[in-house]
Amino acid sequence: MKKKRAVRIVALILILIMGLSFLIAAIDALTARADVSQAQIDRLREQKKDYEKRRQEIQSHINTIEYEKMTEIAKKKILDDRIMLTGLEIENINETIEQYIDLIAQKEIEVTKAKQREDAQLADYKERVRDMEENGVITYLEIIFDSTSFTDLLARVDFVTDIMSADETKYFKLIDAREETIAAKEDLEHTKTELEDERINLVIKESDLAEQLEEANALIAGIEATLEAENELYNSTLDEEKKVQAEINKKVEELRRQQEKAAAAAVKGTGSLMWPTPSSNVVTSGFGNRMHPVYRVLRQHTGIDIAAGYGAKVLAADSGSVLTSAYSSSYGNYVVLNHGNGVTTLYAHLSSRSVSAGQSVTKGQQIGLVGSTGVSTGAHLHYEVSVGGQRVNPLQYYSQYVFSG
């Protein structure tokens, strides 16, 4: 009975020591954790700070007297810059959310493994305590007092020391396993909280984007509200389109001469064009002369308009190289691809561009996102095809589309 009481006292002391050790080591266990996914999130946060700084600079510009003195088209350019930046912020948040989701899955696995290690150490420790209770702690003294000589005594003391050291190792392994489990659980909950914060931030940014698009669209709509202003806008747009086409032709010719001089094969596509917006096959405006819905006059449309949601993916219609990736007052963000054999394609009013001039692209590669930059009053893709420097009807290359005028 006395032996069992002594064992219970020793077990109680061990429990108290375990609790004290946890309080001392818990902070170290938490600060020591790190992984690659967290580093990626930190990189996205730095990118987010840069976007916030740029957004403040754009807003400061909008608030100045100089902004009020600008033409409507110049104002639209600044509003487009703000919209593009908000789009980049939304992309940043979405990427951060994806990283957090992956990180949470990783940390849930870590919690499970930590708990398994703790359970294994606890079972090992319980087995040792049970063994102590069955055999009695007094056996340490019996081992020593049963020695037959001084040399035997020293040997027995070393033996007892080894046993106590093994017991201490089991104890500290249990402490470490328990600390690891608690730290993993706390880290997991903290990551889940940060994920929810990012989701709330995403809702706010998407609301900001909707307001900014409404303001930019209202600006163009205001110009189109009067015949004189609308005619001026149309003429400036037509001039801009001619300028862009001339630049395309010039670059195609320069590229051809360079390739001939270098005796290199021209960049060529497959010869067939795929539909550039996988999310929508609805054409809202066709190629050629079209009747203006308000003024009932014929206006030239140099491509087709494809209805697609803001931020939808825009894909390269064929393989080739990027001739132009830029912004113009008419086309907004636009990309021009050279597919060889005199064939080029143009993608306009993008919210953002994913490629740079001189870059090679493959058929179906993402080159940007649908937007409403430039002279545009709603999210859509303006898509053009040119052959030998002349714009042609893009729809002649396709059959699976729906016309919705």
| Termini gap | 95 Å
Low-confidence stretches: 1-34
The SSE order reads HHHHHHHEEEEEEEEEEEEE
Helix content: 55-70%
Rg to the nearest angstrom?
35 Å
Structural class: alpha+beta
Principal-axis shape equals elongated
| SS strand fraction | 15-25%
Secondary structure tally, helices: 7
Structural key phrases:
7 helices, alpha+beta, elongated, 11-stranded mixed beta sheet, 405 residues, 13 strands, disordered N terminus, two-stranded antiparallel sheet
Outline:
This protein is an alpha+beta fold. The chain contains 7 helices and 13 strands.
List the helices and strands and how they pair.
Blueprint: H1 2-31, H2 36-62, H3 65-69, H4 72-135, H5 139-145, H6 150-224, H7 227-261, E1 282-285, E2 288-291, E3 298-301, E4 304-307, E5 313-315, E6 320-328, E7 332-338, E8 343-353, E9 360-361, E10 366-370, E11 380-387, E12 390-392, E13 402-403
Parallel strand pairs: 1-13
Antiparallel strand pairs: 1-4, 2-3, 4-11, 5-10, 6-7, 6-9, 7-8, 8-10, 8-11, 11-12
Helix pairs in contact: 1-4, 1-6, 2-4, 4-6, 5-6
Description:
This protein has helices at 2-31, 36-62, 65-69, 72-135, 139-145, 150-224, 227-261, and strands spanning 282-285, 288-291, 298-301, 304-307, 313-315, 320-328, 332-338, 343-353, 360-361, 366-370, 380-387, 390-392, 402-403. It is an alpha+beta fold. The strands form two sheets. Strands 1, 4, 5, 6, 7, 8, 9, 10, 11, 12 and 13 form an eleven-stranded mixed beta sheet that branches. It has a two-stranded antiparallel sheet with strand order 2-3. Helix 1 (2-31) packs antiparallel against helix 4 (72-135), helix 1 runs parallel beside helix 6 (150-224) and helix 2 packs antiparallel against helix 4 (72-135).
